[in-house]
Every structure is written in C-alpha cells, then in structure tokens.
C-alpha cells in the first residue's frame, strides 16, 4: 500500500446507467478508508442536481444493451429483447421512458440502490464533490439547482487534488 | 459471545459493504459483527474490505445461497 490513500474520479456522463459507476466507486472507496473526490463535469454535473428524477437510460446507439423484462413467467423474463429490437425503434417518443422504467424495476428486483440513495450515502460518508464551474455556465445552471455541501471549481482545482491521489479514474 | 447482526440479504453491491462500514463505525475495537449477504461478489469484496481497513475477517461460512461473515473491528 502506498503512503497516500486518495481516490479521484471524473464523472462525465449523465444517464441513469452511467450515474452508477462513479457513485458506486466513490461510496465504496470512502467505505474502504480512502479520501474521495469526484469532479463532475459536462453531463456528469447532472449527478449533483437536486432533482434526479429525470435521469434516463438510452438504448439509442447501444445495440447490445441486454433487455430482459422484469416481470412475467420465467421463460419470458429469460428472453433478451435487446439485440432483437432494431435500434431505429428507440426514436419513437416514449420508448426511452419505457426502457428506463423497465431498467429501474430490474434494479429494484436485484436489490440495487437508487442513485439518490447512493449519493446520500456518499455525502454522509464524506465524499467531496466538485462541480465544474465552466460547464455550469455553459449549460445555464444556477447554483441553487445543486445540492448543498458541494464545491464549485475548475480544472486546476481538480488537477491539484488529483496530483496527490493514487487512484484516478475517468468515467 | 453475542454479535450484532447485519442482514443484507437481497441487497446488491455496494450496499453490503457500505452498511457494514456504517455499522462498524458505531462499534468498539475488538467487537465482532455478523453480516449476512446474498450478493455473490461479497465473498471476495469483504476480504478486500477487511484487508484495506485492517479489520479481521474471523470466519466466513456459506449457508445455502447466503454468505455469512464475522468481522472483528480493528
């Protein structure tokens, strides 16, 4: 084990599925005694908004996404519809929301925490979140849109924190 | 010896680790906690968790699809 025990992450994606990896790693990292900082930039900023209810998955452009129904008889739940559905179908309004609700149900059935729960644990345990000031301006967000207790800064702050970190991940 | 028991059956990664960490924070050194999980990844994860934090994984048993861990706080 090296002398420092810090982990730094860059969260850059803003969909429901991609919200998980940074929050799982950040919460697990801090549970394992690391000092954890997450720099949320571009779409990753969305992880810090007060309201997370709009988070969705997009099967669009993700042709191998496994898609199994979270209800019905066993044989039906075993069918992987993902590769069977032509990707163009996901252009139909409403289908993305349907896929999202199926994903949420599947997660619930599998005892997977919600993004809200994971984020709350992260904050409770002391994960430091840094919101990228530049992207906030670019997307037209206001500071009031974000949760309490986070830092607002730029790339230099992140690089300074990451400088002493021994685990640095871009997600 | 009586143990505090944490039942994490049905919960998936990373919840068993997070809840164990929170429970350990409220305990005294040398106290033991019993954690019951169904998460298949937990068998390796608890070894890594204890290894990183210096807690002792006193024993680990399987009971059907349940994994039981006894962890002594460092």
Automatic annotation (TrEMBL), chain B:
<feature type="domain" description="UPF0033">
    <location>
        <begin position="5"/>
        <end position="73"/>
    </location>
</feature>
<protein>
    <recommendedName>
        <fullName>UPF0033 domain-containing protein</fullName>
    </recommendedName>
</protein>
<dbReference type="Pfam" id="PF01206">
    <property type="entry name" value="TusA"/>
</dbReference>
<comment type="similarity">
    <text>Belongs to the sulfur carrier protein TusA family.</text>
</comment>
<dbReference type="InterPro" id="IPR001455">
    <property type="entry name" value="TusA-like"/>
</dbReference>
<dbReference type="InterPro" id="IPR036868">
    <property type="entry name" value="TusA-like_sf"/>
</dbReference>
